[in-house]
Amino acid sequence: MEQFLNNLVASVITAAISFGIYFLIKKMISKILSAGLKKAKHRKSLTIMKVINNILKAIIIVLAILTILRFWGIDTNALLASLSVAGLVGGLAAQDLLKDLITGATIIFDNKFDVGDEVKIGDYQGKVTDVGLQSVSLRSKTGEVIVIANRNILEVINFSRNTPIVNLDFEVLSTESLEKTQNVINKICEKIDLLPYVSGKSTFKGIIKLEEDKLVYRIAVSSKMGKYNELNSESLKIIKEECQSNGLETPYNKVEEL
After folding, report:
1. What is the total count of domains within the chain?
2. d(CA 118, CA 113)
3. Can you give the pTM of this predicted structure?
4. Does residue 61 sit within a domain?
């Protein structure tokens, strides 16, 4: 009984010390990165911190478990040897894990995106909340957390790196006069410029397509980082409302984005 209590106390102390070391090292690394990346992008610092934190946590947990097992008389050397053999047997099954790790390292060092960026990966879009060596987590506009294995990340659209241009294409019946259409477009541009998602003034690009019974016009506007979807949606609403309120006829009485 006494030996059991001694082992239990030693295990608890080891766990407490391990957690203490983890938080201490984490805080030190955070200070070092904050000083070293003071002039760099804050998002990059967050990304590196999350990756280091994940690696550090895994190492300390493994070491703590091995130490505790020794207190209970378990031969950790034999355990590690058996794990090595099992690892060789399960090598084929670990190929996906290896792909995740390689892709994760590529994402971090190639600077494809950082924590806080608004991205689209495959069919999923959202704000990057976590970047790890195995997966990337996104938070969608509606709050869902999407976890994507790194090996499945093939194409990435980053809306936060450069100022995206929103091209707003809309159709007007060819029977409408150019002067009337131009006046309505001027009103549309004025209202779009007042939106909080705009970076710079909107630009009327003119007629981009001629069809038998309609003309296709384009307005281009720069979006603030991460606000592409909001700007696109609100601008299309303005176009529809202005066309209707000013009697500018559009096919089927609706605005379509081409």
Report:
1. 3
2. 9
3. 0.45
4. yes
Q: Is residue 94 part of a domain?
A: no
| Separation between Cα atoms, residue 70 and residue 228, nearest integer Å | 56
CA 93/CA 232 separation, integer angstroms: 44
Strand, helix or coil for residue 14: helix
Nearest C-alpha neighbor of 221 from the set 146, 175, 168 = 168
- Most confident among 14-18, 22-26, 138-142, 153-157 (mean pLDDT): 138-142
DSSP per position, 63-94: HHHHHHHHHTT--HHHHHHHHHHHHHHTTGGG
Note whether 156 and 112 are within 8 A (CB): yes
H or E stretch at 145? strand 145-149
Determine the Cα–Cα distance for residues 15 and 27; give it in Å rounded to an integer. 18
221 bridge partner residues: 166
| Structural domain boundaries, residue 12 | 2-89
Summarised one tens digit per residue, pLDDT across range 207-226 is: 999 888 899 999 999 888 77
